[in-house]
Amino acid sequence: MVAITPDSPIAAVFGNHHKKRKLAEEGLGLVTVGDLLRHFPRRYVAATELSEVATPVVGEQLTIVGEVRSCDSAPFFSGNRRQFRTTVRLRTDGPDFSVTLFSPYAALAERHEGEFRPGARAVFTGKVKQFRGSWQLEQPHGFALDGPEAATLSKLMPVYPLTAKLYTWDIQKVVTTALDLVTGVPDVFTPELRERFDVLGVMQALRWIHAPDEWAQLGAAQKRFRFEEALVLQLVLARRRAAHRALGARARVRREDGLLAAFDERLPFELTGGQREIGDVIAEELCRDHPMNRLLQGEVGSGKTLVALRAMLQVVDAGGQAALLAPTEVLAQQHHRSITAMLGDLAQGGMLGGAAEGTQVVLLTGSMGRAARQEAMLRIVTGEAGIVIGTHALLEDKVELADLGLVVVDEQHRFGVEQRAALTDKAGAPPHVLVMTATPIPRTVAMTVFGDLETSVLSELPAGRAPIQTNVVPLADQPAWIERVWQRVREEVEKGHQVYVVCPRISGDAGEEGESDQLDLDEDGREVAPPKRSLAAVEEVHAELAAGPLAGLRTSILHGRMQPDDKDRTMRAFAAGDVDVLVSTTVIEVGVDVHNATTMVLLDADRFGVSQLHQLRGRVGRGGLPGLCLLVSHAEAGSPARDRLDAVAATTDGFELSRVDLEQRREGDVLGANQSGFRSSLVTLRVLRDEKTIVRAREAAEALLSEDPELDQAPALAEAVDEVERSAASGFMEKG
């Protein structure tokens, strides 16, 4: 008999299972026996207790244990064929459910009645639906818990991630066979490490995670696999940090009489305590001979750009260049205007009237004309421009920098890891890197917890920021409230203020710039169908408002398909107060700073993510005037989309909202390029739930590498770490 190992094909443990083709072909991604053993259940159902189903959700796939109240069969005709319908009514520790089983002949119906006797306990799985006020399971499958099919089940029945043509007990039967036959399963923990970290051996943990008889067994198994995953990832990250520190970087030493000193002397206000403290940390790190890799988090308007500018000036003082990478032309232009204005004649180095210690600030975007683009690139490559601000255009191969010393990435979640790497690769020596975000998205939170970046937080409330009131306008319940929304807009304009109206789309076309990528997902990561109703679009909404409720007001539009000059002209007119209401896509999400704008109306707000909503409302209340944000939505109460809006309305704390976002959308691909969503590289870990485990694993990883840098004493652990490092996802992380 051929030995079964983790590398054996999964078909080796099918035996005579009648669904083996489905098991092999249904897209679960299980190729080997090892894949099967690591296909862990997502939850468990206690076979000895009636299921608690507090609030059934229509359309949800549900597995329940219930007591049979009644079981009745009756014949019916389908076409010319006589068939039988058996209705089983179940009592749970919640509402009653009924399931309907169909039989082509009487004997099978009689067998159903014999199996599901009143008083018997049974398990069923199916999709929840409601019919005439009663709960049902559609397309049900199940069996009595005192019957032969239940013989191999554990007391805590695992519920596996599945496809439509398989049942959770199909997976468990094959897993049970695999656990009985497999040999040679590697354990990343040696006996000494198992004792040191108080974790189970791998085979015991596999048996208990797939077939636990009590919650304590399950807890011990989960503890082992969560710590294993955290430790492997922390070892990868610890090695990366060590390798990053070993890279040679040019020290950019602070000068006492240079450009930075001149800038500080001219500042018309005092730096906040946080700006001074974080600025000193960054200044010290820039003086080191290995690259800085720091994440700067802070609320909208908290002064992150000023901190970054002072770091850029230190690098210019030391003879280097600094590049600021922005995700949109609107933001790049805003940065160029604001930085040039803050520097004054210090931004006119080498020009008539410029300060002697000054430099030049150059903007490079994809829409610039050929002559302007060539002039900008010449000033960049010669080093005349100490500060370079740009969009993705900076990443092009033909863009060369004289001496790139610092890369600043604004709104870092808008860039993939590969894109950031394309810019840092332009430096002769590894540059220092500072990434900034106003609201950490899930991937940022995950990377922060895992320690891939050193982190600074500007936690002080921004000076001059007024409170922002946020309200949900629930059109599903109160459709007439939209009239009051436009009345409120008129009232603000009559006070001399300005208003944003934000839409998820430009026009009736799908898939265009400006449309949110927010998806609602079920617990298995499948997309919930979007609404059939057309989403609000800038062009249609603007026409309707200008001809209807906002007639007579000065309205304009802004979106990503407009020519750059038209976008810039529109933004300048809005900033100058020549436009009362700006109907826009999310191009105004970051970088737009109009102090007279007090109100924002977000149409179809449920189509935006938590971070996006928080960023957008940060556009109002910037001039000391109270802000108002209205989240207009057709989402029904209790839906994930509505919960997301309620969470945003409940707090203006961006860091708290990042945790809400993480809970709803999970971590994203911590080691790869995915920004968020259910395609997470994490299998058993959840960043919020397992923070203590992750911290413990980080400490353990540092200790192990200090004792045994090559992990020679734990070869299976070393192989697991090497496998992650060899993966494409780890390659993305290395570039970042």
TrEMBL record:
<keyword id="KW-0378">Hydrolase</keyword>
<keyword id="KW-0227">DNA damage</keyword>
<dbReference type="Pfam" id="PF19833">
    <property type="entry name" value="RecG_dom3_C"/>
</dbReference>
<dbReference type="InterPro" id="IPR012340">
    <property type="entry name" value="NA-bd_OB-fold"/>
</dbReference>
<dbReference type="InterPro" id="IPR014001">
    <property type="entry name" value="Helicase_ATP-bd"/>
</dbReference>
<dbReference type="Pfam" id="PF00271">
    <property type="entry name" value="Helicase_C"/>
</dbReference>
<keyword id="KW-0347">Helicase</keyword>
<dbReference type="InterPro" id="IPR027417">
    <property type="entry name" value="P-loop_NTPase"/>
</dbReference>
<keyword id="KW-0234">DNA repair</keyword>
<dbReference type="GO" id="GO:0003678">
    <property type="term" value="F:DNA helicase activity"/>
</dbReference>
<dbReference type="GO" id="GO:0016787">
    <property type="term" value="F:hydrolase activity"/>
</dbReference>
<dbReference type="GO" id="GO:0003677">
    <property type="term" value="F:DNA binding"/>
</dbReference>
<feature type="domain" description="Helicase C-terminal">
    <location>
        <begin position="515"/>
        <end position="663"/>
    </location>
</feature>
<feature type="domain" description="Helicase ATP-binding">
    <location>
        <begin position="285"/>
        <end position="458"/>
    </location>
</feature>
<protein>
    <submittedName>
        <fullName>ATP-dependent DNA helicase RecG</fullName>
        <ecNumber>3.6.4.12</ecNumber>
    </submittedName>
</protein>
<keyword id="KW-0547">Nucleotide-binding</keyword>
<dbReference type="GO" id="GO:0005524">
    <property type="term" value="F:ATP binding"/>
</dbReference>
<dbReference type="InterPro" id="IPR047112">
    <property type="entry name" value="RecG/Mfd"/>
</dbReference>
<dbReference type="InterPro" id="IPR045562">
    <property type="entry name" value="RecG_dom3_C"/>
</dbReference>
<dbReference type="GO" id="GO:0006281">
    <property type="term" value="P:DNA repair"/>
</dbReference>
<keyword id="KW-0238">DNA-binding</keyword>
<keyword id="KW-0067">ATP-binding</keyword>
<dbReference type="Pfam" id="PF00270">
    <property type="entry name" value="DEAD"/>
</dbReference>
<dbReference type="InterPro" id="IPR001650">
    <property type="entry name" value="Helicase_C-like"/>
</dbReference>
<dbReference type="InterPro" id="IPR011545">
    <property type="entry name" value="DEAD/DEAH_box_helicase_dom"/>
</dbReference>
